[in-house]
Design brief:
- It is a single chain.
- The chain contains one helix and twelve strands; from the N terminus they run H-E-E-E-E-E-E-E-E-E-E-E-E.
- The protein folds into two domains: about 1-35; about 45-180, Immunoglobulin-like (Sandwich), CATH 2.60.40.
- It has one helix at about 5-30, and strands at about 45-50, 55-60, 65-70, 75-80, 85, 90-95, 100-110, 115-125, 130-135, 140-145, 150-160, 170-180.
- It is elongated, with a radius of gyration of 33 Å.
- A hairpin with a 5-residue loop joins strand 8 (about 115-125) and strand 9 (about 130-135).
- By secondary structure, the chain is mostly beta strands.
């Protein structure tokens, strides 16, 4: 059994150990790390068409595999002399988005009303950034313009299917812009 002096020593040792544990856990509590919560509130993106993608009047004899490329800011290229008139040019859209936010632009969902051609290899020129790929396979990741509203120009490669007949065949594509 312990005598009084031994009991005091024992209690002193246990008390010091306990105090050490308290000071150790207290030291951890005195050292927190602050984490910042980053939040960006953005306005909905709106897109409106100013001018449609225009290929003009094409030769009805446009053969399978012949192409016409409209590249925004670059020009119109006709591989086999199939353009016979009309106006050629990229689609122009007006885009409104919260400024300087990461966005993704993609063009997809071709609807071809007649089967005389296919559209592919879409290119986009957003905020005068140059013609860059913007298809579903390779969307354009960029930053929204420094002004709330800016232009987006969309071009594509039209490839003949060999099945054209005289008439007007208006197709369409979907242009989607979303925040990242």
């Amino acid at each position: 059994m312990f005598n009084f002096n031994q009991s005091k020593k024992f209690l002193a040792i246990v008390g010091c150990a306990f105090a050490g544990l308290l000071s150790f856990s207290g030291a951890q509590a005195l050292n927190p790390e602050t984490v910042t919560a980053e939040v960006a509130f953005v306005a909905p993106i709106t897109i409106s068409t100013t001018t449609n993608l225009q290929y003009g009047a094409l030769d009805v004899l446009m053969a399978l595999g012949h192409t016409i490329v409209i590249s925004p800011g670059v020009g119109v290229f006709d591989s086999n002399g199939n353009i016979v008139g009309g106006i050629q040019g990229p689609a122009e859209l007006s885009v409104t988005a919260t400024v300087l936010q990461p966005i993704t632009i993609l063009v997809d969902g071709e609807t071809n009303a007649g089967g005389a051609y296919n559209l592919s290899l879409f290119t986009c020129d957003y905020d005068s950034g140059g013609a860059l790929p913007c298809s579903a396979a390779l969307p354009l990741n960029t930053t929204s313009a420094a002004v709330a509203t800016t232009d987006l120009f969309v071009g594509a490669t039209l490839t003949g299917t060999g099945g054209a007949v005289a008439g007007t065949f208006d197709g369409s594509v979907d242009v989607t812009i979303s925040y990242q």
